[in-house]
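Translate sequence into structure tokens.
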Amino acid sequence: MKVVILAGGFGTRLTEETQVRPKPMVEIGGRPILWHIMKHYAYYGFNEFVITLGYKGEIIKQYFIDYAVLQTDMTVDLKTGTVNVHQSKSEDWKVHLIDTGLNTMTGGRIKRVAPYLQGEKFMVTYGDGVSNINLHALLEFHNTHKCLGTVSAVRPPARFGSLLINDDNRVSEFKEKSPARAGWINGGFFVFESQFLDYLKDDTSILESDALEQLAIDKQLTAYKHEDFWQCMDTVRDMRYLESLWNERQAAWKVWEE
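Result follows.
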């Protein structure tokens, strides 16, 4: 199955970083968050990616060109200009880097890469969020429920600690930044049947407010509940939090081995 990664947005809530690079290229532990997401999918055997480019997409293209070269042993004959590749240490990934327009909406970006999906079932995720979601279980859930789409549902991380207070004003329970219990939110990590593309009209189609809302109305959207780690990277605070988890070897999304 191919994995579509939405990587074309402006990242306006992270302007401190995105003035010079697209948000998926913001680094965690010395690697772009996009690389972390791809490593997660590849761990479960999904290693063909369609990356929808937009804002500063050339930086993502150059990263993968350089990455392929830098992970390879080679001999360069400077006189003749020939390059002999001996051994590649790079990941076994196939990466389609597709320019989907600067101002195209999320749904429109998926619509634009439809020719690369070849009428098959496919996965979609955002280029700015990490999780330890079991992708095999997600796919099995989708196949069992036989709907056109499945969305991963997650508990939003609480920004502050929560208190349970008794009638006498004593604190009976204190939980520091536990997942919010108010409800479920869209965590990305989608699975779609090819017919889902019919819900996307053109560049103005928004995945969430257009296609997914209509899919829900048509009773063709199921939710896979993920109770464990999930974190998006919307702000500098989020970025620093993920960086601290990585540095402290507490990165729950790192399901792969080095």
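Note: The radius of gyration is 20 Å.
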